[in-house]
Each structure stands twice: as structure tokens, then as C-alpha cells.
Amino acid sequence: MEEELFYRALGDSLTVGIGSYFNRGFVSRYAQMTVEQLNRPVRTEVFARNRMTSGQLRAMIHDQHVRSRLMHSNIVTISVGGNDLIQANRMFLRTYNPVVFEHAEQQLYENLLYILYEIQILKWLYPTPYFIRLIGLYNPYPQLGYSQFWINRFNDVLKSLQTDHIRYVDILPHFSEGGRNLLAFGSIHPNRNGYNLIAKQLVNSGFSPLKI
């Protein structure tokens, strides 16, 4: 095998793997798929917390340990935004003012812009081939009539941040089609099948510039 790759997984409960019980969620599966695709060993580190918002991830980026690991990264995945939306919905149910969603959308954009800028600065300081994948949101509350509209709006924020090194990974259509079959029993989090699907979509997003 060739030289090892360094994979850093950032984000919320999806990155933690909540709901998969005996499986580490999409992170370990994606890492294994990457080994199989590129024939290179992958060293993985997870920097994630259940219920993490984009603001909390922005704060975590200042941690020197996290920064040193990101500096040497080749692969970065980010799952964030779902908790921003959930918090906005809680506020909406108290106020019925849709402005709370617009504010959360703007905050997500500003926080992710900052996070991605910081990662790219770190990679400028340590210039090795790398890419970043932004994992899109799915809709765990289809029964809420307005949920799909705001899921799409938040995903549009993620799409707008794409560059040569950054790609958006769309999982919404697959989770909409799979429904409860991709979610853990009694949970809004993916089950093993759901996490495997996320890993496959990450692989489908490609490995450039790591693979010619």
C-alpha cells in the first residue's frame, strides 16, 4: 500500500454515529471504503459531539489539538446544521415567527464560511492534497408541513460553499425514499443502513485530488 491518508471527521451526532449502536456510523465505513478504493491506509480521528451546532463547531476549530490534526488532514467530512434547524424550530413553536429560521440559516452560512476558511488556511500552512465534504441534511420530521422548505434552504447554504476542494454530498433524496427504514427505531438518527448510505454517497462524491 501507498502512504497513509489522514481523515478528520467533524460534526454532530451523525459523525458520532448516534443510532448505529454496535457500529461507528458512517465514519468507519467511509474510511474502510476509502482504503478499498485508493489502496492506501487511512488514519481516522473524530472531533464531534451529539447535538453540536455550527456555532459550537466554529468554537471547536480554535482548539489547538483540533487545528494541528486538521493541518495534516487529507480528508475532512463535516456534518452540521441539523441542530441549528432543530433549535430554530423550537423557537418557532414558541413564537410562530419564521424569522428565527432565516436567522439560523444566516448563522449557518457565516459559521461554515468561517470554519472552511480556517481549514483552508491551515492547509495553506501545510500544503498536502486534501478535500472537504459537506454532508447535506435529511428530513427526520416529514410530518411538519414546513420542514421540507427549510431543509432545502439549509442544504442550499451547503451547496453554495462548494469550491475545487469542497463538495456538497446530497443524502436528502435517498433518505426521503427510504423513510423509516433508514432510521433507528424510535429515533431521528440513521440506523446501520442509513449510515452505510451516507458512506456510499461520500465515496460517490469522489476522491480528487487524492486519486488521479
From TrEMBL:
Pfam families: Lipase_GDSL_2 (PF13472). SUPFAM superfamilies: SGNH hydrolase. Residues 9-196 form the SGNH hydrolase-type esterase domain. One of its GO terms (molecular function) is phosphatidylcholine lysophospholipase activity. It comes from the Bacteria. PANTHER family: SPORE GERMINATION LIPASE LIPC, THIOESTERASE 1/PROTEASE 1/LYSOPHOSPHOLIPASE L1. This is Spore germination lipase LipC. The lineage of its organism: Bacteria, Bacillati, Bacillota, Bacilli, Bacillales.
